[in-house]
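Shift notes (night). Ran Phosphoribosylformylglycinamidine cyclo-ligase while the centrifuge was going.
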Amino acid sequence: MSGGAPTGTTYAAAGVDVEAGDRAVALMREAVARTHGPEVVGGLGGFAGLFDASALVGMRRPLLTTSTDGVGTKIAVARAMGVHDTVGIDLVAMVVDDIVVSGARPLFMTDYIACGRVDPERVADLVRGVARGCEETGTALVGGETAEHPGLMEPDEYDVAGAATGVVEADDVLGPQRVRDGDVVVAMASSGLHSNGYSLVRRVVADAGWGLDRHVDELGRTLGEELLEPTRLYTRPCLALARGLGADLRALSHVTGGGLAANLGRVLPAGLQAAVDRGTWAPPPVVRLVGHLGGVPRADLERTLNMGVGMVAVVAPDAVDGALADLAAAGVSAWVAGGVGPDDGGRGPEVTVGAKGVDGGSVVLRGEHPPA
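Came back to this:
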């Protein structure tokens, strides 16, 4: 051992900067606080978030709902573009809009950021995006974690995940048990690709040799800007729909991984089939671009991308006009895309039965989309 003051390996030398994490918390604090109502107890910084659930006492039979998700490989586009707040909005959409499908009101959310190196400004941007999404959906952001993983992740790598909890009266739960023969399928427009299918999209773009800074006339902006368009948040419009329609709102389906048919089938009972007419809408330009640029078969596009439909409502026939009016008032473009009838047992490439372990109804996609 040499002389002088003893030296050793420090946490900082191992690649973890505790002070950077503290700076990130300071930068995000104001944005997080804007999501807090009187139900949040203790504010930011505790070991766990506290939420006053006294309001649940007045409910007849409150059911708690929970969901967790991430943003997937859309993160790679955000990193390449150096734009990090929009994927925070995507995270909220992926988690909270899964909760609203049951008719539940989201209560609170937590997030988790794993990174190779804590960049306080980047982490704060991510959380500001999460906070913005929470604010827009009426969800309290009650806590989270930023974990630095040097040696496991490259310095500029990161990933995000989140979990949320909501509540719904047992009598008001939406789903297959409410769907009836003769109900109508109402489609709600997406804001773009949302947060699914980016492994396919990135492969198509890479194979074509396109850069994210390429301006694409049919998109009206650069490819990167289009790919980072945040996922539309349907929480408030769907909850308003549930309040306005009551029992006439049968089910909601969040169109995420697996596409329109697979996700719609999850909220249909066995023995019924939803027939969806492609002719009722035109997919957005970015979907057509991916299909053309990569020569992607339509079946693959439909199993991977949302095709321009981000959420679906199944409603009673007499409630269709009211549903469309309510959604229009909320700024959501919506249209009648099909209807529900008996499943005749016929099967083929256009018919989807069961998805993600759900033994539900079937969905058939018919016709052709109108030309661009």
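The chain is about 30% helix and 25% strand. The radius of gyration is 22 Å.
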